[in-house]
Design a protein that fits this description.
alpha/beta; Tyrosyl-Transfer RNA Synthetase
Length: 399
């Protein structure tokens, strides 16, 4: 596949969703305009069984390179995943076994294939970094470590915070950026793409490439989707969208985003004109309608346009018109039971403590009434009583 030097496509690649480019935008722009095939990669540690929408930001950037004819590598960090990336972590990650990381990565190619092309004339290459990291000798690790200083590593924000909070930093965490940095050397790439939270690790690879290969590696640090306070989406926030989520889950989670995430969402997750979206907001457009448009766009990417229309209609039926969903799962109980036990038994809560927190937060209804007492007794009837958690989850308790 010939390499394209289309100036409009290059401009979009260099600007859309990009936080910063190292060594500079001008350096990468010149390389792209040469018309020679560049090689670059995105590394993903398999810390969970599903890719999430944050990964899609970098996958979309890789696809831009792929469409221009450049060589793209998706690197599974099956070795680095066992070390644990300390980035943004206030405590040491729980270390994973090789079996766990390989199990987690089983569907990564299939999921990444929603965005990248693993076939065709310019297929994405899938690699695993245990291929070279597992073979490094102690002598070689020491040689790599000689390229970094302790103050350089300790300068990382999360390490400084841990020291301030009196929390431990383990030696293996110091080795993580060395290992990730060596990925670039082992594959002899021209560049790397990642989120801006990975800048330190990606620059470690840039330092090693310069020291060991005499080569200028470019780094693209992409923007991350966050609310106006800078808080990223994540498991702890309950708003992380995974590639395995249903269309209803994706749509509902996007509709729960703050209004301040709308323009950023259009910029880094779609191809729409996000500048025009900002003008619509400034002109008084209803943020809810723009959020619904964003949600339909993303559902279309993961499913198709007809499903996006259907899930939008379902959402409107349930929330805008305040109607119950047409189908509600029944859960049978044998006799009177406390609402806390009902929530756990029906699967609406994972534990009694979570059930109590939901009730204390006003997030549970029995029929039309908000439950205020965790000791409230639910008596099953033949017709059933509908228990609602939050805005999107329902179950009918029957006897």
């Amino acid at each position: 596949m010939p390499v394209s030097t289309d100036p409009k496509k290059i401009e979009k690649l260099l600007t859309r969703g990009v936080e910063r480019i190292f060594p500079s935008r001008e350096f990468l722009e010149a390389r792209l305009k040469e018309g020679k095939q560049l090689s670059l990669y995105l590394g993903i540690d398999p810390t969970g069984p599903n890719l999430h929408i944050g990964h899609s930001i970098q996958l979309r950037k890789l696809r831009q390179f792929q469409d221009l004819g450049h060589k793209v590598i998706l690197l599974i960090g099956d070795f680095t995943g066992m070390i644990g990336d300390p980035t943004d972590k206030s405590a040491t990650r729980v270390r994973l076994t090789r079996e766990q990381v390989l199990k987690n990565a089983e569907r990564y190619k299939e999921q990444a294939g929603k965005i990248l092309d693993f076939g065709g004339k310019n297929p994405v290459e899938l690699r695993y970094n245990s291929e070279w990291l597992a073979k490094l000798s102690l002598v070689e690790v020491v040689e790599l470590a000689a390229h970094f200083t302790v103050p350089q590593i300790l300068a990382r924000d999360m390490f400084k915070k841990r020291i301030k909070d009196g929390k431990d930093i383990y030696l293996h965490e110091f080795l993580y950026p060395l290992m990730q940095g060596y990925d670039s050397v082992a594959m002899d790439v021209d560049g790397e793409v990642g989120g801006n939270d990975q800048t330190f690790n990606m620059l470690a690879g840039r330092d090693l490439m310069k020291a060991l290969k005499g080569k200028e590696k470019f780094v693209i640090a992409d923007k991350l989707l966050a609310d106006p306070t800078g808080k990223k989406m994540g498991k702890s926030e309950g708003n992380m969208i995974t590639f395995a989520d249903s269309s209803d889950e994706i749509f509902g989670k996007i509709m729960s985003w703050t209004d301040g995430m709308i323009v950023g969402g259009f910029e880094i997750l779609t191809t729409e004109d996000y500048g025009a979206v900002q003008k619509e907001l400034d002109g008084g457009a209803n943020p809810r309608e723009l959020k619904a448009r964003l949600a339909r766009n993303i559902v279309t990417q993961y499913f198709d346009e007809s499903e996006a229309t259907a899930v939008s209609d379902r959402f409107d039926q349930l929330f805008q018109k305040k109607e119950m969903p047409e189908e509600i799962m029944d859960h049978r109980i044998d006799g009177p039971m406390s609402i806390v036990d009902v929530l756990v038994a029906s699967g609406l809560a994972k534990s009694k403590s979570e059930a109590r927190r939901l009730i204390e937060g006003g997030g549970v209804k029995a029929g039309e009434e908000v439950v205020q007492d965790p000791e409230q007794i639910i008596e099953p009837t033949r017709e059933g009583i509908v228990i609602q958690k939050g805005k999107r989850y329902f179950v009918r308790i029957v006897g």
